[in-house]
Design brief:
The chain has about 190 residues and is mainly alpha-helical. The protein folds into 2 domains: about 55 residues, Arc Repressor Mutant, subunit A, CATH 1.10.10; about 130 residues, Tetracycline Repressor, domain 2 (Orthogonal Bundle), CATH 1.10.357. The protein is built from 9 helices and no strands.
Length: about 190
């Protein structure tokens, strides 16, 4: 087959896959996890059930693919923020603010139990930990953060502290949580 034809088919398949993921997320948001069926997904996406089954075996597989897409997008967002200009401390603060905002949007209940498991999430957590560790080490070398605790431990502290953002009800509360977390990283007088 000609290259252009293959590219067109690949683009179509990617568009159908994205539509399936978006539709499923919308259906879960509207009616809950247990209410979603493959028939609903196919109908709302505008494809046949047989076509849907060519992409995903069941609703859980669709949700896992949707979550993987979300996690990847969040990691790219955080990496972009961490690569922007400014001091390491400024970049760290921006990354922590963004991460806390993401943590605040997390899904709860049975959806979280389904999605927050497996190797993919572990890989994402390791990647994020490494990103924070690098920024913390750079800020510590500049004298902005405490040198007496290894950066890996401080990165773990940040990740765990900021999971509390999931229970916060305002952006102001999230900003305070980030400020308190950063205060724990500063050198002792």
């Amino acid at each position: 087959m000609p290259k252009l034809w293959n590219e067109t088919i690949d683009a179509h398949r990617a568009a159908v896959r994205e539509a399936i993921l978006d539709t499923t997320a919308k259906l879960v948001a509207e009616g809950g996890l247990r209410s979603v069926t493959m028939s609903q997904i196919a109908e709302q996406t505008g494809i046949g059930r047989a076509t849907l089954y060519k992409y995903f075996s069941d609703v859980e597989a669709v949700l896992l693919a949707w979550h993987e897409r979300q996690v990847t997008a969040h990691l790219h967002q955080l990496a972009g923020i961490g690569d922007q200009g400014g001091t390491a401390l400024e970049r760290l603060q921006s990354v922590l603010n963004a991460y806390a905002g993401i943590a605040r949007q997390r899904h709860g209940g049975e959806l979280a139990a389904l999605l927050h498991q497996g190797e993919q999430l572990t890989h994402a957590e390791r990647h994020l930990h490494g990103m924070l560790q690098h920024l913390i080490a750079e800020a510590a070398r500049a004298g902005d953060l405490r040198p007496d605790v290894p950066p890996a431990e401080l990165a773990q502290y940040c990740l765990h502290a900021l999971t509390a953002a999931a229970a916060l009800t305002s952006q102001a509360a999230v900003a305070r949580l980030v400020a308190v977390t950063l205060d724990g990283l500063r050198p002792t007088p």
